[in-house]
Task: structure prediction
Amino acid sequence: MRWRVVIRMWSFHLALIDKILLPTHRSIGVISNCVIKPCPDKPAVFREIARILKPGGRLGSKRHCAQGRVPPAVAQSLAAYVGCIAGAIHIDAYRQGLRAAGFEHVEIVDSGADLNAYAKVEKPGRLLLSCDG
Result:
């Protein structure tokens, strides 16, 4: 027996992540893959996501947390910014930012996929970056 599944309830919207053009409580889920990290105003992003989610809605995101302090040279590096490393915030700040935006049940899972970007600094000012994608 062959099955054909048609999903008509999904839609994709192109927008800035801190200014999503959807009404309040419109979405059952938001998926972000390395989009939040380069945003300079993460609290605004968290608030906007919380605004558009219906009660009980979920946010699924990947590659956003730093387990330690991001060295200043890395945080200010254009290559690290483009490589989605420079904008990482500490896991505790990420959790607090989500709760401050109104998320009640925050669960952060360590996937074990450590980019180990800081150990790949060969010389000051030169970074070798990789992505776990």
